[in-house]
Amino acid sequence: xxxxxxxxxxxxxxxxxxxxxxxxxxxxxxxxxxxxxxxxxxxxxxxxxxxxxxxxxxxxxxxxxxxxxxxxxxxxxxxxxxxxxxxxxxxxxxxxxxxxxxxxxxxxxxxxxxxxxxxxxxxxxxxxxxxxxxxxxxxxxxxxxxxxxxxxxxxxxxxxxxxxxxxxxxxxxxxxxxxxxxxxxxxxxxxxxxxxxxxxxxxxxxxxxxxxxxxxxxxxxxxxxxxxxxxxxxxxxxxxxxxxxxxxxxxxxxxxxxxxxxxxxxxxxxxxxxxxxxxxxxxxxxxxxxx
Length: 291
Hints:
Blueprint: H1 2-12, H2 14-44, H3 55-80, H4 82-90, H5 92-97, H6 103-135, H7 142-167, H8 173-190, H9 202-210, H10 212-224, H11 226-232, H12 235-244, E1 249-251, E2 254-256, H13 258-290
């Protein structure tokens, strides 16, 4: 019931719902207005074996759209957790604490509502992205599309748990707003949306590879980009493209394949889940002492 209440609070605020899509809209606008032709021309003028191929624009489109899906999973969850910060700033968490529920149940309600919102927004974005790719002639297969919808579950759940652990430290709306703006500004760079991964500085590349959402974006790219890559590249060139564009991620000499990326995401999510449990218990101890 609390998760339902938090979800309804989110969707009743139309401005908050709009802002949950804002980062994706900004990235799409930048891509279509400025970056698309630059990226496509760089592909034609690069050291690849092909000269002209009709699937090159579709390949770049699918690469960007997969990254956007990874971004929306994060931005929608952080916007949904705004309800928690507003409750805390207004003292509503004290009112909810007087009910016969513990801090664990209250915290779980915020995580679940963030997961619900993230799934709805991410699924909507994926549908729009798939419609765009189909309209532009991108080669897609049914199994890859189904896999992308299934991958929204770990992607969104990971974002909800990790962001809950981070935003639980914020006690004011201003601090949360600053964090949200900073994250929205940096997330496209860390994911390699604005620039290919090969063009990122070493420190930024290393930090980006630590973010679970970067791994989820890479997995989405492995499914959405596979068709156009097969049409455009030879196997040798495809391996270079996958590394340079962040379809395959590397930590030093170690390559994250799909299974390794998913295991990494689950491991980091489990770590932050433990952190969230510790925070719940500390909050419960403080409440008991205050009483």
